[in-house]
Design goal:
With 878 residues, this protein is α/β, with parallel strands linked by helices. It is built from 26 helices and 35 strands.
């Protein structure tokens, strides 16, 4: 759920530097106003202010409102959906035609659909200025008023999101939208471009006949304006002409009535008469503009015949009374319209809410689930609600958290909400007769909020199901049966979403089928230069694991796919796993421990792919957050931008690819290695491969998955032989199962055999060198941290403490190069007279690793009197 940035503190322009640092071009506006902008800063020739100029403006007018000009390559889609504005209708129509817009931070002072959504676009693509109810804000056209500015009507502008967005983080406008909004799609006509004859021709194209409900709705809103009469007239003309070009009847009649209203409003105003307004000319100019600007736009003809009732008025129906002139409540609520959507009568709010509660979790709303404390929806790639990732790939489907507005939108799109009306029409014989019509309506925000709370509390939503996981291939249940029916599996609370159009072959487990399956499984990696048989076996363990996540739940170790040189095939091995099972691909490693946590949370919270790969990681991999994740079935973290902690299921297989990978901390024992070595100076120049894995694996994905299931099914039928646990940690059962499976299938009997060098991290090796040097210098004597510091010497004569007073110890001197971690740097920077500070750092380092073995050595503590310095002593086993 989005969280709004705090409201204004009365000095909006103080935030201008924040926007500048995030890539925006701030504009100082008058306090509480939207206009005018600073001269020379907007339009095609506008010049952005420097930081110094902005800081001067802040000092001069901190209470000024804050606007932002679009940077080059950024547009704002300004949707107005209030009063006579119908931007929400236009937005919904465009999303139905072009696909949903990806989520973007929205700036608005209003609730609901209205607001500006920001996207990145190619800077050299010309875009039109707007559509019905949607203005397009560009670098050269208009600007946006943003948080924490105050609207002239007193509302505070706000961002839907946790912070002011950075321009670099804005999503890209989808290609279909970009094509639709290109400037060349409309040969823009100005009023002077239409001759009187052409204007008459355009007028003749405006629909005649009786006004439909849409036309009447425009007129009704025009007569209760929220803006000035001139703007209301212009916007209403535009709406009527657009409806008329889209096939709605009554355009000419609606324009005639609108003209009468406008002329009356202007000419009955004494102030307008004094100003000498030429009302007819203003009307004609505005209409000419509306006809011109829509003359080359494309409208899908709707052939609307919807008319408002002439016999009844919904307002006469009391709340709670479902009776209408021609009552057909049961048919309406259980029936299906010509568009195939279930109809829900909304004249009675309580009854409509109850009906929708029954549908949530079924049919058109079957993609809604309760996951932990959250309401979620699971769109697949390209489906409504899917948000393309900014970088990399996040797998075949997502889990999108829903709020009340999301639920409202989905209900309105997937169901047909409205009321049944009886209208009077003329039959073929010319006589009037009653006819039932379905009048579409929206779901109120109040009803949406009630439904949302019911879902979260599990109240009277009988078909809302709890979700623990999502799979994209058949999975093996705990009892050995195969979950292969698409949809929700109540036993495991798992949603099986196979890729559209993919059919997995039947699984057989006889000896011949297993042999054929093993041959197919091993074929893609026949030419990979695995260093040892264990490296090869470990890769096959990773290949089988995602299909066994119900039988052998996580946690799983991280697989490190390693090579000494670039171009050896590390990413190809990882991609096979992702292509087979579905994968999230992320480039590199996060820059900080905090970013590691955010990345993990985002992946577990928003994606469903079972394989997660950090590709081409450089430098030492060290993370306490990752260490905890790899030994836990669940992961708890604070949601980004919210004071809310969430526990997520860690049911993923985590991979890293790197050249000469280096692990720090306690990661080494939580990792299985897959190392390849092409033994050639230019491995990327190799040729002669039997398979093009980029195309072969996706083309044979169904067969590969079926082969994996065949081997597993045969192994289960054989009783899962020789499952002997070789570890004493959380990986023990999974490790034993993989070793048994691969050995039984004849793939390898070397799975999981630990190379002692790889069981130690770089930190472990540093610690071992330190302990060996301490033992050489101190022997079996007791000593304090100060005693050890007194023996340290640099390995070169020019050491920074060469002139310092030295304490002679018979065991010799400790070589500074063996100080672990950052202690060597601290030693170099300390110098004479600062031994106390370094002694404290060394003592803390040793205390944090007390009794921790490296090989056969450990540093233990020795008894000492209370309050005295801690004594240390070397311990040795074997």
């Amino acid at each position: 759920m989005s969280v709004s940035v705090p409201t204004s503190n009365g000095t909006p322009y103080l935030e201008a530097v924040t926007y500048l640092d995030k890539g925006w071009e701030p504009l100082l506006l008058p306090p509480g106003e939207k206009f005018p902008p600073p001269k020379g800063r907007t339009g095609a020739d506008g010049i952005a202010a420097t930081r110094g100029e902005i800081e001067d403006e802040i000092r001069a007018c901190p209470k000024g409102n804050l606007g932002v000009r679009m940077p080059e390559g950024v547009v704002g889609l300004d949707v107005d959906d209030y009063g006579t504005k119908s931007g929400g209708v236009t937005l919904a129509a465009l999303e139905a035609k072009l696909g949903p817009l990806p989520y973007s931070p929205k700036s608005s002072s209003r609730d609901g659909v209205s607001g500006i959504r920001f996207y990145r676009v190619p800077a050299d693509v010309p875009l039109r200025d707007g559509l019905d109810g949607i203005d397009i804000i560009k670098h050269t056209h208009r600007y946006a008023v943003v948080w924490p500015s105050l609207h002239p009507e007193g509302r505070t502008y706000r961002w839907e999101g946790d912070e002011v967005p950075a321009v670099a983080d804005l999503p890209e406008l989808p290609a279909a939208w970009l094509e639709e909004l290109r400037g060349e799609h409309r040969a823009t006509l100005h009023r002077s471009d239409l001759t009187a004859v052409e204007l008459d021709a355009q007028w003749d194209e405006v629909s005649d006949g009786a006004m439909c409900s849409h036309m009447k709705d425009v007129l009704e809103r025009a007569q209760s304006p929220v803006k000035g009469r001139h703007d209301t007239c212009r916007d209403s003309q535009w709406a009527i002409v657009c409806y008329a070009r889209g096939g709605h009847p009554g355009g000419q009649e609606a324009l005639d009535e609108l003209r009468d209203w406008f002329v009356y409003e202007i000419e009955s105003d004494p102030g307008s008469r004094r100003l000498g307004h030429d009302t007819e000319k203003e009307w004609e100019d505005a209409l000419r503009d509306a006809l011109s600007k829509t003359s080359t736009l494309h409208f899908d003809a709707e052939h609307c015949t919807d008319t408002l009732p002439e016999l009844d008025d919904e307002d006469d129906t009391p709340e709670g009374d479902d009776t209408m002139t021609a009552p057909a409540h049961d048919d309406d609520e259980t029936g299906v319209g010509r568009d195939g959507k279930i109809r829900i009568t909304v004249s009675n709010k309580n009854r409509a809410q109850n009906r929708i509660r029954e549908i949530i979790g079924t049919g058109p709303l079957s993609g809604i689930f309760l996951r932990g404390p959250e309401l979620v929806y699971t769109p697949r790639v390209g489906e409504e609600g899917y948000v393309p990732p900014k970088t990399g790939d996040d797998g075949p489907a997502q889990v999108r958290v829903m709020d009340a507005l999301d639920l409202k939108t989905m209900v309105e799109i997937r169901l047909s909400l409205g009321v049944s009306r009886t209208v009077t029409v003329r039959g073929k014989d010319g006589e009037p007769k009653p006819e039932k019509r379905w009048e579409p309506k929206n779901l109120s925000m109040e009803s949406a909020s009630n439904l949302y709370r019911s879902c979260l509390n599990g109240l009277e939503v009988p078909n809302l199901r709890r979700l623990t996981g999502v799979g994209h291939t058949p999975l093996i249940r705990k009892d050995g049966s195969i979950l292969d029916t698409p949809g929700y599996d109540g036993e495991t609370r798992t949603l099986y979403l196979p890729e559209a159009g993919v059919t997995f072959p039947e699984v057989r487990c006889d000896a011949a089928a297993v042999a054929d399956a093993v041959a197919l499984i091993t074929r893609p990696v026949e030419q990979f230069p695995f260093v040892t048989e264990t490296d090869r076996a470990n890769w096959f363990g990773a290949l089988f694991t995602p299909l066994l996540k119900l039988m052998y739940p996580s946690p799983y170790p991280m697989f490190v796919i390693d090579a000494p040189q670039q171009g050896s095939g590390k990413t190809a091995l990882a991609k096979i796993l992702a292509d087979v099972h579905g994968g999230v691909m992320a480039s590199g490693w996060p820059d900080s421990e905090a970013e590691v946590g955010k990345k993990i949370t985002t992946i577990l919270h928003n994606t469903t792919a079972p394989v997660v790969t950090f590709d081409n990681v450089k430098g030492k991999i060290s993370s306490a957050t990752l260490e905890s994740l790899l030994t836990s079935e669940e992961y708890t973290d604070r949601l980004l931008g919210q004071n809310k902690y969430l526990t997520l299921r860690n049911d993923r297989l985590w991979l890293v690819t790197a050249n000469n990978a280096s692990l720090g901390g306690d990661l080494a024992r939580r990792c299985y290695w897959v190392t390849i070595n092409a033994n050639t100076p230019r491995p990327y120049d190799r040729t002669g491969f039997k398979l093009n894995l980029t195309t072969w694996v996706p083309a044979n994905r169904a067969a590969i998955v079926s082969a994996l299931l065949t081997v597993i099914a045969g192994w289960v039928e054989a009783g899962r032989p020789e499952m002997t646990e070789r570890r004493g940690d959380s990986f023990a059962t999974w490790d034993a199962a993989m070793a048994s499976l691969l050995s039984w299938a004849g793939i390898s009997d070397k799975f999981g055999i630990v190379d002692e060098r790889r069981s130690e991290s770089e930190d472990d090796r540093e610690w071992l060198l330190f302990l060996e040097e301490v033992r050489r210098v101190m022997g079996d004597r007791r000593f304090t941290a100060r005693d050890l510091v007194g023996t340290i010497t640099d390995s070169t004569p020019s050491g920074v403490w060469a002139d310092a007073e030295e304490e002679s110890l018979p065991e010799g001197k400790f070589q500074a190069e063996y100080l672990p971690g950052d202690l060597a740097d601290k030693w170099t920077k300390a110098g004479p007279g600062h031994q106390a500070g370094f002694t404290k750092s060394l003592g803390k380092w040793m205390s944090n690793r007390a009794n921790r073995y490296a090989a056969s050595l450990a540093l233990g503590t020795a008894p000492n009197r209370k309050g005295a310095a801690k004594f240390w002593v070397m311990e040795h086993q074997g």
